[in-house]
Amino acid sequence: xxxxxxxxxxxxxxxxxxxxxxxxxxxxxxxxxxxxxxxxxxxxxxxxxxxxxxxxxxxxxxxxxxxxxxxxxxxxxxxxxxxxxxxxxxxxxxxxxxxxxxxxxxxxxxxxxxxxxxxxxxxxxxxxxxxxxxxxxxxxxxxxxxxxxxxxxxxxxxxxxxxxxxxxxxxxxxxxxxxxxxxxxxxxxxxxxxxxxxxxxxxxxxxxxxxxxxxxxxxxxxxxxxxxxxxxxxxxxxxxxxxxxxxxxxxxxxxxxxxxxxxxxxxxxxxxxxxxxxxxxxxxxxxxxxxxxxxxxxxxxxxxxxxxxxxxxxxxxxxxxxxxxxxxxxxxxxxxxxxxxxxxxxxxxxxxxxxxxxxxxxxxxxxxxxxxxxxxxxxxxxxxxxxxxxxxxxxxxxxxxxxxxxxxxxxxxxxxxxxxxxxxxxxxxxxxxxxxxxxxxxxxxxxxxxxxxxxxxxxxxxxxxxxxxxxxxxxxxxxxxxxxxxxxxxxxxxxxxxxxxxxxxxxxxxxxxxxxxxxxxxxxxxxxxxxxxxxxxxxxxxxxxxxxxxxxxxxxxxxxxxxxxxxxxxxxxxxxxxxxxxxxxxxxxxxxxxxxxxxxxxxxxxxxxxxxxxxxxxxxxxxxxxxxxxxxxxxxxxxxxxxxxxxxxxxxxxxxxxxxxxxxxxxxxxxxxxxxxxxxxxxxxxxxxxxxxxxxxxxxxxxxxxxxxxxxxxxxxxxxxxxxxxxxxxxxxxxxxxxxxxxxxxxxxxxxxxxxxxxxxxxxxxxxxxxxxxxxxxxxxxxxxxxxxxxxxxxxxxxxxxxxxxxxxxxxxxxxxxxxxxxxxxxxxxxxxxxxxxxxxxxxxxxxxxxxxxxxxxxxxxxxxxxxxxxxxxxxxxxxxxxxxxxxxxxxxxxxxxxxxxxxxxxxxxxxxxxxxxxxxxxxxxxxxxxxxxxxxxx
Length: 939
Description:
This protein has 44 helices and eleven strands. By secondary structure, it is mainly alpha-helical.
């Protein structure tokens, strides 16, 4: 019983304020069949006609309760006939619900208001309705039976003729006869029902013989008669339809008797319900509409406001406008120009501004209750959108965001579900509430972090809370376990856009620092990150944050600093007396690693001289892999004068060589980024889509604007791994038009210089390159100078304290031939060995152990030379490997007798694997020779 009453209350509230939840219940109680994988929503007609008894009984109970004031009014009038108002009011509400259920719930209020002001309006409506519910003269029962019998015979003939046209044998079956009989019964049912309605109403009027319509008809009686006429017409049509339904049910009875299996229950229920609809409309509209439009000005405003309030759940502006126009037209005769004042009243009511006046103080009261007795999750369910989906006013409810903040503090997972549900709402006030709450919610989540793993996890798309709150800041893919609701993205405040990417960078930097194998470097990395956090805290005002935002985020930054300091202390304990390992052999040396980058000033001076040359030649920086070309390009801003702006373009990125439009976009983005890092602000980057139609035109237009802003300075475009352009051309991703464009830029843009960096020269890449780029100056980069290499081993970092035994440094220089990669590799291995043996002094024995360690760590480098630089075909590779093994094991190269062997030897010399010495051959890098001798395996 309690469940039934609760569902009854929910039906009433949801009809008034939560239409989607009402629709959900209707769909659950009366599910539709799936169509194309989706279920269509049920309509009110479905429920009124064929709904289950539970729903209908709850709706009727609500109508009865709402009509209790009418019962009291009837008792006050003390007239027996007025008791007919109760069933008529309920029937009218039930009939209106057939079209729109929430409006049906307002019929008792409208009815009560009309009959309270005009007590006799009910009897007038009955008298007026008789005229329009009376059958036309020819249609008495006998005439109708004969007429519809002939009509049924015609139907039977048409069925037989249709079988002939379909090339079927015409024959009489039981089904065809049942259909003809059913048609006759259905049509007769319509006539009988209308006759019953007529007799009932005439009987009612007979009881009230004293009520008459005089010869002088006033506006009130005229309005009632028009409304009742309209209602009578609708009742006549619906009543006839009901009769057809009853007839169809009778036909099914005949079929069941004759052996059919169809059920008749549905037809019987439908016929009964349509009878209710007919009677309800016939009388209810006469009272409600006819009486309503004759109300005085104040009461008619209330009348119109109630109708608009009831129409709000439909969210159908067109229907609302139509009803508003009808109300104005019908009331114009009575109210004159005052009828125009209906417009602001119905707008206020339809857009539920009254609701805001209720929920605003209620929200404030709820926040006070939450302070006294915190239970934010439960209290959130008492506010929109759980209690109202129609709060359209674009204002946030007072202190509503504090409930969300409190809920996330107590139970983030449960609060997240409420947050996401609220986010699906299109109400502007709720979106403002979420936008206001989000910064504090995110700040609280970040402040609850207690360990470094938790801190790092905040930047991960698998985080259980943050990606669902602020998905634009996380890169979510189809493989992620994190699911995002398909809703418009919530707008975030600027403070989140400013700070959150920085904090995510901090989390990723911490992860990178802790991945370093050297504990001392981990500690140093954490220290640097903590210093950056301290700097960020002092920069908050300059970032444009308001005082409230600064107050919110300062504790977060301070808390993160404490967490990082704790990790620093742990790393410090682990790194007792451990040497820092600054050597880096896997990746290029970046600009911020100035102590690790040594030498190369001679190459920088050569490039400056060539760039400023009047001939402006195209520069090609070439050399073996891992000889430091990319590191050299990264450190250009420190090596070149300020009037040359170096721009690094990584041609290995597939994003830049996918198409010509992507390449042009990538060039513009690289120029803009690197110039900005050097203090030069260039025009905004065009959108990527702007390059699709005409990439080169868009590129030149932007360059014309950009070069005008740099004055006398020049831009040096450094295309690293430029051979990838040729690969893209071979794959059809880029056409030879690119060569024409590059040549055009080189010849006609004096402030623009080009440097191609790679393993090969232009001549080695083929005729396309050498023919397009005529004025070319190759610059070969090989090894460091001995003094530069020694400086790298001795002073790679200010905190470096490793010491070497006599001649160890010379031995390392000899083994590596000052090759940058091999120096870094062997240097890192020596530090690892020193730490492993708890010493800061490298001896000959530790050097040998470091060499073995380097062979393991540098396996990829040595294998790449062994398998890729020994030849271009399997036969060449085998010959090349055999030649290297001969030199490594015997220091003697057997006599070359074939052309393919000569080609392989030339290749080995060209890529500086072998060198010619005193008529013989030897490895340029002894460390590589030792690896080949001890570890190489033939392909």
